[in-house]
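Technical note accompanying the year-one report. For the benefit of new consortium partners, we illustrate the data format agreed upon in the data management plan: each record pairs a sequence with a structure-token string. No post-processing was applied to the example shown here.
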Amino acid sequence: MTGMMGSGKTAVGLELAEILGWPFDDSDADLERRTGSTGRDIADKHGLAVLHSMEADSLLSSLLSEIPRVITAAGSVIESIECRNALAQRAFVVFLDVDVGLMLERFSAEDHRRSTSREELVVMRERRLPLYESTAQLTLDADRPVPELVDTVLAALADGG
């Protein structure tokens, strides 16, 4: 699962993993487990470059598994050519597309995500959108209900995805 912050990757991924009976790898949870810090804390203390490098490492590690799994990738990994290549070679990629308004609705003050302004999100989304689209085998509008998104992914997988 790829997409911007707040696109619903974790909610869709958890339900999908449960239905499929596959392990679930969430980049945010992996980062916290490995470092004891949230992405927000890492960005604040060490900068975005360090955070994005750690997020890429998490995805690449998950993609090395020989066991099928549902992976929710940090939004930033799509900007890494190494991550895009690994996704293309080793995954059925679902892109959950979300507009900036919905992203902001889904954020909370106590969230693990770093603080980001509307303007930053607009620029980030515009920069990343073609990368997400070019990497995905399936693009879904993230404003749809989670069960509907999960059913669409399951249907695509059943069709040979």
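Partners are asked to follow this layout when depositing records. Residues 118-135 form the longest helix (18 residues).
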